[in-house]
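user: Please review this fold.
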Amino acid sequence: MSEQESLASLAERFEEQRPRLRAVAYRMVGSLGEAEDAVQEAWLRLSRADVSEVRNLGGWLTTVVGRICLDMLRSRTARREEPMPDPVLSGPGGVDPEQRALVADEVGIALMVVLGTLAPAERLAFVLHDLFAVPFDEIAELLGRSPAATRQLASRARRRVEGAAPAPDTDAARREEAVDAFLAAARNGDFEALLTVLDPEVVIRADGGALRPSVLRRGATNVASGAATFAPLMDAGLRVLVNGQPGVLGLSDGEVVSVMAFTVRGGRIAAIHILNDPERLRTIDVHALH
């Protein structure tokens, strides 16, 4: 086989792994653009490497992407608070097949926000082991730690994730019913109805980027009191899925002005995440979501 034929065969095998690699990278860095950059870097490294002795190319590539993403996280400028992760949007008909791997395990925005609070090493250990079943000894090699220490990192991360982002309701109809009730109550300014549909410990976060203030409210009373503020974002909105969960795309004159993502637990709204950063909203193609 010629070198050109060999590279073409390698490229074909890489493309088979691309959806999984994008999913790993997205969970690691929370940015669709950076995730794609990490996957492309993995291809460059693969194309220059001798993998003739590699028995499990998918596993090899997963650890390569993990290492690249770890370096990305470590090189990020320190911030007081991580921005809201990039939302994975799909129309009401369901998740696009190309995006399915990104949200295959219902990796909602609430979970992604919690992942963003983990230290880089914790995030790597949790994502690779708990979400992609990479053995601890392989992760330990990436981190330069012992398997036992790596296991502790993942365990600590797991406790934080389970404490801050419990699993949402899996019944799609139940989720939609709760969101419908919230939207109706918010539009009508029905305070009592809002309290009924909101979890007592509900959290609402809005990320406006550098140009707009961020918002954080906790508790059903506080969120219900401020619901009227966000009601305009819901008018003329397009119902979408955000990371597989119910959401609303706020529109004004055909332009995207917000993305709202809802987390429903126990039939009530437990979290609302709003992205209204003009810079990041500019990349959303509304027509692809109808």
About this structure: The first helix runs from residue 3 to 29. The radius of gyration is 20 Å. The chain is about 50% helix and 15% strand.
